[in-house]
Amino acid sequence: MAGSLLIRINVAIQRLELAIASVLGRRFPPDGYCLAGIEVQNEVSHPKSAFSLRDIIGDGFLWGVPTARRTIEKRHKRKYGHPDYIMKILQPKKNIKTCNDCGDDHLIGVLCPTCYKKVIDETKEMQDAIQKELQLSPVENEVVVLYEGEKAGKPDEFFEGKRIVEIPKPRPSWFSKNLLQQTTQQPATTTDVKPSDLG
């Protein structure tokens, strides 16, 4: 197999040299410049013919191609994987838990999408109420969103200098009142940071 391939390569190189010589109209160079291992045939006259790649390659080369079909076992291993290596088929998820509020299943470490949908809807309703109340006027003051019956429980001094937006419905049970409160921690007065516990 390897011997016949080398013979074909030698013949192809000889034909390539003949084609180059006939195109350029020259004879072969001296034997010292020829490729090693190739017998040079010095011919007196070379007929001029059109350059053809088929004359150089001849019958062609033999390449390594599959000689048999893959077995069904190998095809299934490539398609679905193998338990000892990589499994490509769907695996059951083991990181799912049930929400305590709504009972829907969701991934661990991810908010329950059903419960979060309620938060999205409530936020959209608050944004619509603020847009309807304030419209396009600039807001320099703090905006306070009040649900039904919450204004009576606070003194009038609490609402001084604030824009009030009322929503005509009771506050949802899951929406805590202290979520909208501002922080009581005073901002820092210096930018210097001193390391602690250095010994």
How many beta strands in the DSSP annotation?
4
Measured as a percent range, the helix fraction is: 25-40%
* Beta-strand content: 5-15%
Shape: elongated
Oligomer: single chain
Between the first and last Cα atoms, what is the distance in angstroms? 80 Å
Structural class: alpha+beta
> How many strands, what sense, and barrel or not for the largest sheet?
2 strands, antiparallel
Q: What letter string, H or E per element, gives the SSE order?
A: HHHEEHEE
Q: Report the total helices.
A: 4
The largest beta-sheet arranges its strands as 1-2
Q: Give the C-alpha Rg.
A: 43 Å
Task: Pick out the low-confidence regions.
Answer: none
Q: Please, could you describe this protein's structure?
A:
The protein is an alpha+beta fold and 199 residues long. Helix content is 30%, strand content 8%. It is built from four helices and four strands; from the N terminus they run H-H-H-E-E-H-E-E. The strands form two sheets. Strands 1-2 form a two-stranded antiparallel ribbon. It has a two-stranded parallel ribbon with strand order 3-4. A hairpin with a 6-residue loop joins strand 1 and strand 2 (105-107). The radius of gyration is 43 Å and the shape is elongated. It starts with a helix and ends in a 33-residue tail after the last strand.
Keywords:
single chain, alpha+beta, two-stranded antiparallel sheet, two-stranded parallel sheet, 4 helices, elongated
Quick overview:
The chain is an alpha+beta fold and 199 residues long. The chain is 30% helix and 8% strand. The strands form 2 sheets. Strands 1-2 form a two-stranded antiparallel ribbon.
